[in-house]
């Protein structure tokens, strides 16, 4: 059997830590400090996993350069650990079937993370569909040239939500990620209206009849309110945080809005971490922080 591969930037990948509760932090922070440690998050947020991508890597939906995604690769193991943490490995009623991935602002790696989660589940033989829910600025349509699609579908997600076409006319197979895709072919100013229509939860319920796992790549949580609506329809919400990128206050605002809406926020995944700087911070914490604050 050939080893499945994923094309993404050539880089050193490493990973640390899981299932550790973050230390207390004020949600009223306005200092503009960047999110770069677990201690920056508010109390009660569980870290499913901290995944490290080299700061020199470019996280996008059209990756470049081959990196192995075989069963024994560090990247595959990192994604498996996320899956375990959010109960994708369960076979009973506690299993998460609808997973939303979001971030605070654009360019934090949420679409790559969504694709990796879908790829990992599909490699286990599951029926997976990856849905680009950003109707304002869709990334999958832009990246379609970098994917291995079976064919371009005659309809798209906007047609489905407008109730002008059934979902199966808008779905295509992505051979590279070994899953199905459903996405808008272009942005629309009616995004908020379409996401809040009854057709969206009806679509999610219909997809459950055909797929084992539905991965919803949602818009950034702080930029628009769509993620709040989508989060309520999800079993699990995973929050991507690009290391040292968005202001701490911005990240906390997105988290607070999702929690206030009752979205099942399970934890954070740090992306594009500066490995050298991260090692320095971990060393500092080991030397000078009390055990309960590490």
Structure, explained:
The protein has about 290 residues and is an alpha/beta fold. It has eight helices and 13 strands. Helix 1 packs across helix 2. The relative contact order is 0.21.
Keywords:
8 helices, 294 residues
Structural class: alpha/beta
**How are helices and strands ordered from N to C?**
EEEEEEHEHEHEEHHEHEHEH
**Which stretches are poorly predicted, pLDDT < 50 over at least 5 residues?**
1-31, 42-68
Provide the helix percentage.
25-40%
Largest sheet: 7 strands, mixed
DSSP helical segment count: 8
Q: Walk across the major sheet and give the strand order.
A: 9-10-8-11-7-12-13
For the CA atoms, what is the radius of gyration?
18 Å
Cα distance, first to last residue?
43 Å
Short description, anyone?
The chain is 27% helix and 19% strand. It has 294 residues and is an alpha/beta fold.
Task: Give the SSE layout.
Blueprint: E1 5-7, E2 13-16, E3 20-21, E4 46-47, E5 50-53, E6 66-68, H1 74-85, E7 98-103, H2 110-123, E8 128-132, H3 157-161, E9 171-174, E10 179-182, H4 191-195, H5 199-208, E11 213-217, H6 226-232, E12 236-242, H7 248-260, E13 265-271, H8 275-288
Parallel strand pairs: 7-11, 7-12, 8-10, 8-11, 12-13
Antiparallel strand pairs: 1-6, 2-5, 3-4, 9-10
């Amino acid at each position: 059997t050939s080893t499945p591969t994923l094309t993404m930037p050539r880089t050193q990948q490493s990973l640390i830590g899981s299932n550790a509760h973050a230390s207390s932090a004020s949600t009223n922070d306005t200092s503009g400090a960047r999110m770069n440690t677990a201690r920056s998050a508010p109390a009660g947020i569980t870290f499913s996993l901290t995944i490290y991508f080299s700061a020199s890597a470019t996280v996008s939906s059209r990756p470049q350069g081959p990196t192995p995604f075989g069963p024994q690769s560090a990247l595959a193991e990192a994604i498996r650990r996320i899956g375990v943490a959010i109960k994708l490995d369960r076979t009973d009623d506690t299993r998460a079937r609808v997973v939303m991935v979001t971030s605070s602002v654009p360019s934090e790696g949420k679409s790559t993370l969504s694709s990796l989660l879908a790829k990992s589940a599909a490699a286990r033989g599951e029926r997976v569909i990856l849905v680009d829910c950003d109707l304002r600025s869709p990334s999958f349509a832009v990246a379609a040239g970098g994917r291995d699609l079976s064919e371009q579908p005659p309809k798209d997600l906007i047609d489905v939500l407008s109730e002008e076409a059934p979902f199966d006319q808008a779905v295509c197979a992505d051979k590279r990620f070994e899953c199905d895709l459903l996405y808008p072919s272009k942005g629309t100013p009616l995004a908020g209206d379409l996401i809040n229509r009854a057709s969206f939860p009806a679509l999610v319920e219909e997809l459950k009849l055909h797929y084992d796992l539905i991965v919803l790549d949602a818009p950034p949580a702080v930029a628009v309110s769509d993620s709040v609506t989508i989060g309520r329809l999800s079993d699990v919400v995973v929050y991507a945080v690009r290391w040292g990128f968005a202001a701490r206050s911005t990240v906390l605002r997105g988290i607070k809005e999702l929690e206030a809406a009752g979205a099942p926020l399970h934890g954070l995944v740090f992306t594009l971490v500066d490995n050298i700087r991260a090692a320095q911070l971990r060393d500092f914490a080991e030397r000078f922080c009390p055990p309960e604050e590490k």
